[in-house]
Automatic annotation (TrEMBL), chain A:
Protein name: DUF3034 family protein
Signal peptide positions on this chain: 1-27
Annotated keywords: Signal
Domain of life: Bacteria
The species this protein was found in: Caballeronia zhejiangensis
TrEMBL record, chain B:
Family: Belongs to the truncated hemoglobin family. Group I subfamily.
Organism from which the protein derives: Caballeronia zhejiangensis
Keywords associated with the record: Heme, Iron, Metal-binding, Oxygen transport, Signal, Transport
Binding site for heme: 90
Residue stretches in coiled coil: none
Cofactor note: Binds 1 heme group per subunit.
Keyword flag Heme: yes
Gene Ontology MF term list: heme binding; metal ion binding; oxygen binding; oxygen carrier activity
Protein name per its UniProtKB record: Group 1 truncated hemoglobin
Length: 300, 139
């Protein structure tokens, strides 16, 4: 982590020298533009479970980090979800370039705990998945365009690779890697202190990809709708709820939609904490999985 | 009732109607509160390295007067804005989004200091936010 941070510092120093070099070309120097931190608090969202900036379960159209058009933003996050029978740990990095492009990496480890033995996998059997994400802001400004209904819109993809290929194929998945494509629209209704997000995702992923992609029931891309609503209680605290539809491709275990209710707290632009109650439905024949979601993000 | 009385009555009714919903204006402490908020905001702006350089040699006293008028109008208060259009007053100053947002933060701090409730603050910010199109020279 320390190494990553020092690399980030190095990168921002490199950008700093570029910026100061180019601005010195102007006779009438504008005030020095800070390298980051130009966005308003919480307007970069938090880190969703697959690494993109957004809510907890779904990407938003915002670009992660606090960088504006001439700045960089970046953060690292860790998320832990624990239901009655399973646990999911995720960590990742997100970089926002010029408030236009977002790159993200995430690694998920899905721990089957005691259920692993019942499923014949062995106790504490883990499914690991790596996710690389790209998001591009297409149009609009979710925060400042308060005189129009036009939201901020972004398009993104998430390439996912599950390391337990033999197992996911044995339970019926068609592949152990897959790519999700999505369009997100995000709008802050500032006078109402309300943030709305809708995301349309085209995916084959079974349980986010943790059980592979496609299946014996269907191996086609399915359009799935995701939504977040957040209410700003104070400048630092937002509460809300989310809904995410999921495909149902495997005949051995039905898959259901996911919900959460969350509270997010950002004391400043460098740290945020999110806690949620999440309901994920049945997972690999084990009924009605629900529990606590906690996530921490640090960056600039 | 002569014509002067009728005109006065009409004016009074118009005013009463225009200010039927002055709750928001009151939450900002009316004219006196706004003047204090704008004073505190400019203390912040001039101490903020992200915004201060834009105000070198600027007529800050005049800017503050016009800003009080402008905010008062946005809050449906009994004021008239006598300043120039926002585009005219900001063009060519090389203002980018980061500087615009920095000023928003300085205003938020001033509103906090003067006890303006968060949700009332957001109602004002919702009216100010679209002005970024006239204020900034680039993103």
């Amino acid at each position: 982590m320390r190494q990553i941070y020092s690399k980030m510092r190095l990168a921002s120093l490199a950008v700093a020298s570029l910026v100061s070099f180019s601005s010195s070309a102007f006779a009438d120097d504008p005030p020095a533009v800070p390298l980051t931190g130009g966005k308003l608090l919480l307007t970069g969202g938090v880190s969703e479970v697959e690494g993109a900036a957004g809510g907890g379960l779904t990407p938003w159209a915002v670009i992660g980090g606090y960088g504006t058009a001439r700045q960089l933003g970046a953060n690292a996050h860790g998320t832990y979800i624990r239901t009655q029978d399973y646990a999911l740990g995720t960590w990742g990095l997100t970089v926002g370039v010029a408030n236009r492009v977002e790159l993200s990496l995430a690694r998920q480890s899905f721990d089957t705990r005691d259920a692993g033995a019942k499923l014949g996998l062995g106790e504490n059997f883990k499914f690991n998945q790596n996710i690389f994400g790209v998001k591009v802001r297409l149009l609009g400004d979710a925060v400042l365009d308060q005189d129009t209904w036009i939201p901020q819109i972004a398009a993104g993809l998430q390439f996912k690779h599950n390391e337990q290929g033999d197992i996911v194929k044995a339970v019926g998945a068609a592949s152990n890697s897959g790519t999700d494509f999505y369009l997100s629209a995000t709008k802050l209704l500032l006078a109402q202190s309300l943030l709305l997000n809708g995301t349309l995702r085209f995916t084959k992923a079974n349980q986010f990809g943790l059980l592979g992609f496609g299946g014996d029931k269907s191996n086609a891309y399915h359009p799935e709708f995701e939504s977040s609503v957040a209410y700003l209680l104070t400048k630092n605290v937002a509460i809300g709820g989310e809904y995410r539809m999921k495909p149902n491709n495997l005949s051995f275990a039905r898959e259901q939609d996911a919900y959460d209710a969350f509270v997010a707290w950002a004391p400043n632009k460098h740290v945020s904490l999110t806690a949620a109650y999440v309901a994920l439905g049945d997972i690999a024949t084990v009924k009605n999985q629900r529990g606590l979601y906690v996530s921490m993000q640090a960056g600039f | 009732m002569n014509i002067r009385h009728a005109a006065l009555l009409a004016l009074t009714l118009a005013c009463a109607n225009a200010h039927a919903d002055d709750a928001l204006y009151e939450q900002f402490g009316e004219r006196a509160g706004l003047t204090k908020i704008v004073d505190d905001m400019y203390d912040n702006v001039l101490a903020d390295p992200r915004t201060a350089p834009y105000f070198d040699n600027a007529p800050v006293k005049r800017i503050k007067q016009k800003l009080v008028e402008q905010i008062c109008v946005l809050l449906d208060g009994p004021c008239v804005y006598t300043g120039r259009p926002m585009r005219r007053t900001h063009e060519g100053q090389n203002i980018d989004r980061a500087a615009f947002n920095a000023l928003v933060e300085d205003l938020q701090a001033a509103m906090d200091k003067n006890g303006v409730p968060f949700h009332a603050q957001n109602k004002l910010l919702a009216k100010l936010a679209p002005m970024y199109r006239d204020v900034q020279d680039r993103e």
